[in-house]
Each structure stands twice: as C-alpha cells, then as structure tokens.
Amino acid sequence: MERDQTEELRALQDTLYFIGGKWRIPVINSLCNGNRRFREIERSIPGITTRMLSKELKDMELNKLVKRTVYPDIPVLIEYEPTEYCRTFGTIISEMIIWGREHRKMIVEDKV
C-alpha cells in the first residue's frame, strides 16, 4: 500500500498545531488527572498564568476538547472536563511521558 506523504504531512501539522505551545498538553494532563475547577487546574501547572489558562480553556472548548459547565450556585461554580474526543489523545500523552522519561535517562547517563 502506497503512503500519501502529502496527507501524512498535513495530519502531522494538524497534530503539531493541536499540541503546539507550551501549555496545551499540561492542561489536558491536568484535566485527565481529575482537576475540574479553574484554580485546581491552575495550581497543578507551575508557571501558567491565569490569563493563559483562560485562553487555553476557551480555545479547547471551541475545539471540542473541553466541556465547560456553569452551576448557578452562589458563588457561581464553573467546572471543566475533558470530552471523550480529548481523552482519545490520552494514549499519545502517555507515550510522550514514557518517551520523555527514557530520553532523560539516556541524556543523563551519557553525561555520567
């Protein structure tokens, strides 16, 4: 079966666009680890600003990766959760974590 390199490149570019940036994967990881409220997510990601997290969550909601639920309590409670579509990315993140750990070991061992 012949591979369509143009289509493969387009698919890779779409994936890189999706995971591009410093914060997208940490936000997804935080959500998939059970953090639902804005401050929980923010505290779980060292260095992220309130403004950047807000921007990421809005963008992810537009891209059907996050479901935002507003509860009309006093004070208003807002929760975020990953969509099933977002969860399909979980195996890729897991593989990236495994690869990153192995890569770090290889680099550290090379220096010793």
For the CA atoms, what is the radius of gyration? 17 Å
Mean pLDDT: 90
The biggest sheet amounts to: 2 strands, antiparallel
- What structural class results from the helix and strand content? mainly alpha
The backbone outline, from C-alpha atoms, is globular
Instruction: Please tally the helical runs, counting DSSP H or I stretches of 4 or more residues.
Output: 6
Task: Give the termini distance in whole angstroms.
Answer: 45 Å
Oligomer: single chain
Question: How are the strands ordered across the major sheet?
Answer: 1-2
Order of helices and strands: HHHHEEHH
Which strand-content bin applies to the residues? 5-15%
Question: What is the compact description of this entry?
Answer:
The protein is mainly alpha-helical and 112 residues long. It has helices spanning 5-19, 24-32, 38-44, 50-62, 84-87, 90-111; strands spanning 66-71, 77-82.
Question: Which short descriptors sum up this protein?
Answer:
11% strand; mainly alpha; single chain; two-stranded antiparallel ribbon; 112 residues
Please, could you describe this protein's structure?
The protein is mainly α and 112 residues long. It starts with a helix and ends with a helix. The protein is globular, with a radius of gyration of 17 Å. A two-stranded antiparallel sheet has the order 1-2. The chain contains 6 helices and 2 strands, in the order ααααββαα. It has helices at residues 5-19, 24-32, 38-44, 50-62, 84-87, 90-111; strands at residues 66-71, 77-82. Keywords: DNA-binding, Transcription, Transcription regulation. It comes from Sphingobacterium ginsenosidimutans. InterPro entries: HTH_HxlR, WH-like_DNA-bd_sf, WH_DNA-bd_sf.
